[in-house]
Amino acid sequence: MNSSESEKKRHQEYIEYYQARMEKYKDNPLYPNSYNSEKSLYDAILNSKDIEEFGAQVEEENLAVKNAIALVKDQAQARKKLYQEIKECIKLKAPLQILDMVDSIKKDMELVNKVSAIENQVSKKISIDLLTQQLSYDLDMLEEIEVYKTAEVPDEWKNKINQEIPEEMIDNGRNDWLNHVLPQAQALKVDWEFDFDLLKKIATVDYCLFLMRF
Amino acid sequence: MLGKIRGGTSVVDTFRNMYQEVVEKKASGEAFSRMKKALNRMEELEAQVGNGPQLTTLLTGEDLFIEFSTAYSEVLSEMARKEYQSVEGDEKLFQNTLAAYENSIKELEGKAHSKELIKPLEDILELGKSGISYPVFLRLCEEKGLNNALEGNLVVREVIIGDIDFARSMHLPLEGEMNQEILEKFDELSSKSKFKPPDSFEFSLESEKIQWKYAPLLEKWKRTTHLWGKMLEYMVDWVDAYTSFAPQDYRWADRRGRAYTMKNIKRTRECNPGLFKAREKLFYKYFQLSWEDIFTHPTFRNEQEAGRVAYSQDSLELIKSAYMYCEPFNNPPQELINKAETIHARASGKRDFNFF
After folding, report:
1. Which of A192, B87, B133, B272 is the most buried (most CB within 10 A)?
2. How many domains does chain A have?
3. What's the 3-state SS for A97-115?
4. Which ipTM did the prediction report?
């Protein structure tokens, strides 16, 4: 095989490779942008006279970066859809922010860095949001306090059972909050404070809905 | 200390190793300096607070994970760019790719799930060494799903099966059901996938959806079990507090002396019915379950099958009979106290552990 035939064969093999990449996303509703960008790459190589011309076109039209953007976009759109569906409003922030900026990207490392920065920033918000899990432990404690405060006991024990023990529990809970929960949250966000209005809303509506979801 | 691998495990170790890796590859430049700066700060914080959850929070709060990782990606990307520019033709690139897979196999040997993780790498190497060209190799990797396999999807299936087995052996029915559903979703996506195994991103979304669906069920299961566990405990303690063995029992023993122990017993006798009733009220308020419902409830049956109800059948019968007497200011009848003593003597009612 002479050099020209060998180049032709190599060109054909790359055409088949890009076709396989395009096929991977064909008819997959999760990846419409990726399919289109892979198709652009496939069309480019198919219509190039050789690999070099294809390389030049990829460079000129920034096809490789556009391809990366398409994948990021598809994944962000899929995450957006899921988090809207399951009402995960904090997790939803990352795909929304990614979708806001992704079309303005021109370079691969810019894409990597901006996506990482968003994911990192939102992951901190998620960590803070997860502090609401504290609510589950708090409910256990509130339940104990309620049991002790309302228990019908002889007069001799009223002070101990209905007052001292619940107060001890409240003090322990307050210490735990001030010495553990709050410092941990404020290490992630210096001015973090519990949103008590939100807590009331959660306690009255969302938590009931949460328990009634099944 | 910078870049040296130390004994013990720390969250910073991973970053030290990554730093060491690029040092060995003779990295330099602005991105490398940023890596170094981020690692320096990580080590400063590690020295201040030690290796614990607080360190992770501080590293996250100062964005050090992201600063380091971004710089690291840039360093690797620059290295790859230089390497790509220096190679002539894709055959050399092909050889470098295969050499990288060979190195990965060596690194994985002896690690968790190494068998499943190494298999796709071996398949890729076998394909790469079969005499085909680089573009054909790349195409076949796509078509045979070897790239997906590299993402660890084969291990994912093994891990889910492991989770199902674990749930079964630990009598965790809802966790088992949830993981079974995840496995079915994995297999469904596999069967639909053009190039098997399934797309890991799509699978991760589907898994998250299933886990979200089960979250309230798991929470309700846990809280129901916790509540009736407490109720059983109050009832047993109440009857046992009247027995002759109570003063020697660890539940009431007080290091300060017998007078305090006796006071503890008195408190249980006089206060447990009121505490029990208050808890029973909450149990009904939250779950619309009564005392009788406990013993036929799926959570109770499951805990019993799992051997996690720490009371013998005799003790449970005793508890059930005691219920009608467990009212504030009331005492259990002597017959039940005698029965509790008999059970204790046989040690069949001994509580060795407490899960509630």
Report:
1. B272
2. 2
3. HHHHHHHHCCCHHHHHHHH
4. 0.84
